[in-house]
């Protein structure tokens, strides 16, 4: 079940961050401020903050094996509800917990405000004691995706673009 968490955190954070930034195709409804030449985006999570993402992924099957199937059977929509919680935030660090469709990843990850991993606390009081290797396999991709989001924060010049 934990293998479903491999990429969701990265997608959740990327969607949350990208959707909060304006782009060429999405102009802000706020007026332009002509004397502003630079913006400093700072990461400032608050204890108790919860980000909930509802995502639907469409999967289309193709090839000779499914060619004779009607279109309705060749397309599958998969919905997922992903939650990212910040149970504790302090000077210089923040903690993250993740769940998908109501199933928690049995670990709390602590990061510095620069998105460097400081610690992982695995839940050991879970009934049935989770297989730590499976938990680690689920957590590691989440760590990489979360750390990728740090490129969004910092000083941006008006009109500047960066690969994310």
Supply the key terms:
two-stranded antiparallel ribbon, alpha+beta, flat, 3 helices, seven-stranded antiparallel sheet, 164 residues, disordered N terminus, 21% helix
If you had to describe this structure to a student in words, what would you say it looks like?
The chain has a domain at 2-16 and 39-54 and 83-153. The strands form 2 sheets. Strands 2, 3, 4, 5, 6, 7 and 8 form a 7-stranded antiparallel β-sheet that branches. A hairpin with a 4-residue loop joins strand 7 (107-112) and strand 8. The protein has 3 helices and 9 strands, in the order H-E-E-H-E-E-E-E-E-E-H-E. Helix 1 (8-20) runs parallel beside helix 3. With 164 residues, it is an alpha+beta fold. The chain is flat and about 60 Å long. Helix content is 21%, strand content 33%.
Structural class: alpha+beta
Q: What is the beta-strand fraction? A: 25-35%
Percent of residues in helices comes to: 10-25%
On the 0 to 100 scale, the average pLDDT is 76
| Shape assignment | flat
Compile the SSE list and pairings.
Elements: H1 8-20, E1 38-41, E2 50-60, H2 71-74, E3 75-85, E4 89-90, E5 93-100, E6 103-104, E7 107-112, E8 117-122, H3 132-148, E9 154-157
Antiparallel strand pairs: 1-9, 2-3, 3-5, 4-5, 5-6, 5-7, 7-8
